[in-house]
Each structure stands twice: as C-alpha cells, then as structure tokens.
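Hi all, long-time lurker, first post. I run a small reading group and we've been trying to get comfortable going from sequence to structure in the token notation. Rather than ask abstract questions, I figured I'd post a concrete chain and ask someone more experienced to write out its structure so we can walk through it together at our next meeting. Sequence below, copied exactly:
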Amino acid sequence: MSTRSDAVGRFYRLPNSKDESAAAKAGDELERRKRLHKGPLSFVPNESTKGYHSFVNRGPIYGMCTWEDYFTPRQALGLGILSRLISELGKRLDRSENPEMAEAIQTCLALNFGRVADLANNLCGWTLDTQCVKHLFARQALPMVWNYAESVLIGESAGSWQVVAERFPGILASLGCNWSRGTIQQADAAAHPLPTDSAQAVFTDPPYYFSVQYADLSDFFYVWIRRTLYGRHAGLLEPTLTPKDAEIIVQSPGHEFAAEGKNNAFYESRMTLAMAESRRLLEPSGIAVVVFAHTSTRGWEAQLQSMIVAGWVVRMNCAAS
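-- Answer (accepted) --
Happy to help. Here is the structure in token form:
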C-alpha cells in the first residue's frame, strides 16, 4: 500500500521479489537473535497456548501452540527488539534517575508496547473504510482470521511505535495528575488483605459468567509485559502466565451445567463469597458501586441474591438507553 503525489488516495500492488526477500531475511534474523539471546526469558514468548479452551482461544486448533506463533517472523523480530530496548532503557534510568521514576517510565513504555502488539500480530484484519489495520481485540476472544494485515512497527502509520508513543502524553494529560498516592495489590476477591471496616468505598465490575475470560485473554499481553518489565513491581510478574485457579468465571457455555469445574454453581458460590468479603472490608457508612450488565434475568437474580446474602443494602441506578 502506498500513495501517489499526483493522485488522491492509496493504491495497492502485489508483493515483488524485494518484498519477499525482506520478509525472509527478517525470519533469518529472528532465528539468529533467538540463538544468541541470553537471559531469564526467551527473546520472544515461547509459552504454550495448548491449555486454553477453544471458546476463548482458537489458535491451538490451527497449530498455533506457542505465543510466538501469533506473530509473523517479521513482527516477532520487531517486537522482540522493542521489548529488549524498553528493558535496557529501564536499567539505564535506574542509574541516572529516581528508581521510582525509572519504574514508572518503563511501565508507561510497556503499556505503549501492548498497544503496538495488539496491532502487530497475524490475527489482525483490515478496516475497509479507513484503510488501516484492525486491532486484534475487537471482541472477547482470539478468533482465527484467514486474511490478515501486517502493520509497520517502525513506520509512521497506524500501529507503529511512533504513533502510539506520540499519543500517550495526551492520554496521561486527560487523566490528570491531582491524585492522592495509592497502593495497587493483586488479591483474591474472596480473601481480601484489607482489615474489616477499613474502606470508605468499593467499586467493582465483576465477571458475567462465561462472557469474558479475562485471565486467558490477558496472557496475550502478559507474556510480553514480563519481558519488558522483568524484575519490576515486586514479583507481580513472576508467574509464567496469569493466575487463573481462583478466577470467578464460568469456563465456557458448555460448562454452565457441568458436574464439576468452573460451572454456574462455582461462579455463583464464589461470587457470594466475594460480595461478602467486600461487605466486610467496607465501613458501615461506606458505599459500593457494582457494575453489572448481564443480559439474562437469571444473571441479575444471582448477582443481587449474592449481595443480599452478604448483607448489602441494594439500590439500583438504571441509566436510560
């Protein structure tokens, strides 16, 4: 795809031998860097994808059995180099900046990296109206596509590092900076570390049965974030993949009425425990906001029942559609 100086719009051509040679050389360079790479993690993610349910990740059905398989060799090479550069920059900043500032900068760069990866994989489609690459997460699953578009990581178009990084300061500015400093901690919603009556507000958007498999989907980014932020955030990124055993979901539509595992009974019993735990840590005059938008009446009944059993006083605020 390119543009002409004497015409409006884009034009397209078939790949030529030069294009094919460049792609082949990228594959050779990727293999060379993988062989020479030294470190606690591989140059590109080689973690297995065979353990995911096909409801959320169809890649293994088609032979995409490691996370590296979700990228062309050229994409994997570019992302692998970018990941290493972010990691090395963090180490340099540690020596010249405040360590907390260095970690914050490196984390922001890792967030930018995730946006690039979302637009630089072999499951991205093509948007016809705007004529640009469509990002992977258009819905809550990793689908299979038969024709994919490859963005240019080092270019100046949508999906490139330059475009993503240049937009990031505007995102931060829109969030503002007049905040009190807080603490972020990973914890089981049914076994929270906060003491009783210690919080003034609780805000939660719980899962909706099998609608979104949050942990499974987040592994797409997590395997890369481990490489860009290795050693940061006090062990938060030590597990090979995101923790899933305690996740309160229904595993798939086929598990709703299964005899065991993450079925409806598991979801509803654990949600009741989570709601009770949230009630425990909230002070008597506190307030909680629970965002719930399940499409079924049964889902609403189960969520409200879990809250009433936990001792909540419920008020619903239904916005007009």
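A couple of things your group might point at:
The CA atoms of residues 31 and 63 lie 19 Å apart.
The two ends are 41 Å apart (CA to CA).
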